[in-house]
Amino acid sequence: MHKKLFIPGPVDVRSEILEAMGTPMIGHRTKEASALGESVCRKLQKVFFTENPILLSTTSGSGLMEGSIRSLTAKRVVVFSVGAFGNRWAKMAKANNIPFDKVEAEWGQPTLPETVDEYLSTGKYDVFTITHNETSTGVMNPIEKIAEIRKKYPDVLWLVDAVSSAVGVKIEVDKLGIDVCITSTQKALGLPPGLAVCTISEKALARGRTVENRGLYLDLIEIYDYMQKKPYQYPSTPSLAHYFALDQQLDYILNVEGLENRFARHQEMAQITRAWANKHFEQFAAKGYESVTLTTIKNTRGVSIADLNKRIGEKGYMISNGYGDLKEKTFRIAHMADRTVAELQDLLTLLETEI
Ligand SMILES: *Cc1c(COP(=O)(O)O)cnc(C)c1O
């Protein structure tokens, strides 16, 4: 039996999109491939509210995280972490020999704009990273307020991990001044895993050209330059199956559901889940910073989450245990991509009888 996924990726994929993954292949160096790439990129610009170019990478989201931190840091990066995925940026910096500092908030707390100000004002850094939506703790960082502070430091590049929020929550890349905004297909976009996308600013491209060792496969400048030379193509062989599916899913998001409706549906699902969590347990994220695409819930009743998931699994549902050290201490209900309010309510009703 297929289990309905309420986990923060991979998400369930609409059947039309699964079918689009099976579109017969085309040559990746053909005019059709260029047209397909262009179509996907133009639609992604709308979704990110940006005029900046889009880069596609046949990796999961982590690929573009590592590619961006390595290709764009010339001096030193400060990583603001609020959990497991924030810490991943720091691990990437370390593994690539990039000078870095990590500023980690207590788990459940956000990155505060004052903290960003404090570190950027030292003048030590040319790049900083923010996790928009921390999928371990269920914290959503205040990127609008961070954007305000950041205006004081326009030369410091701003990289945003929006892997688990983009397209479920409005992120206006140009208005906020984000230099690189990253997501991957298996979260709120509603596709199978295997493709990562990001926006990249002129400033980031210019900076990248001054970085000596950008690696090869995930060199963002190489990916960009190749797209100029062979329009919208990729230096190696891309997952064309994802391109076909993403092109179709973006049509659905932009023209059938509508972006604003998609954002509103995510807000509604978040509110329902938070109310349920407050009634039966407690939320893990600090008040005012709760994620819109998933809810991390404190296991205040000491329920065995592994057993709970087994029981609801027999009824065709799946939620997530806590991440890493938060296993059994918390559990997570994702409400993203094309999940409906009705499906979420069915899950919550079932959970009520099983907890
Ligand atoms: C899932 C996730 C990632 C990792 O993305 P992959 O596509 O699995 O590489 C990074 N950051 C956040 C916040 C995520 O939720």
Assign the CATH superfamily of the largest domain. Answer: Type I PLP-dependent aspartate aminotransferase-like (Major domain)
The fraction of residues in strands falls at 15-25%
End-to-end distance: 22 Å
Rg for CA atoms:
20 Å
Put simply, the count of helices is 13
Compressed to H and E, one letter per element, the order equals EHHEHEHEHEEEHEHEEHHHHEEHEEEH
What general outline do the C-alpha atoms trace? globular
By DSSP, the count of extended strands is 15
Helix content: 40-55%
Determine and state the CATH class of the largest domain: Alpha Beta
Low-pLDDT residue intervals, each spanning 5 or more residues:
none
Average of per-residue pLDDT values:
98
Brief description of this entry?
This protein has 355 residues and is of the alpha/beta class. It folds into 2 domains: 4-10 and 258-354, Aspartate Aminotransferase, domain 1 (Alpha-Beta Complex), CATH 3.90.1150; 23-254, Type I PLP-dependent aspartate aminotransferase-like (Major domain) (Aspartate Aminotransferase, domain 2), CATH 3.40.640.10. The chain contains 13 helices and 15 strands.
